[in-house]
User: Fold this.
Amino acid sequence: MNEPLALSSALAATAICALIIFATRAFPFALFSHREPPRIIRFVEKYIPPMVIAILVVYCFKDVRIAAKPWGIPSFCATGATVLLHVWKRNPMISIFGSTALFMILSRLL
Assistant:
């Protein structure tokens, strides 16, 4: 039988999860605060973000049908809006939310 979780158990589980998350986030700062990070860490720090963005762009366009209505217009407009908003405001949240809203509106209208 599935019995409901007691409040004390839920709070204890939440506290343990919070401590584990804090520890995993603080570990790199504690490890590299007094010395230079290894070359592999600097490589990952420099090259992984652009590679992840490239993978996300390919993933976003994988189901776009250019030969059928709406001919990919919402996707291409939203991508352009992402680039323009990011160049203009330099704020990832504005870029993400603005282009997502534009995509949703165009998807409904077209």
In short: The two ends are 50 Å apart (CA to CA). DSSP finds four helices and no strands in the chain. The CA atoms of residues 53 and 59 lie 10 Å apart.
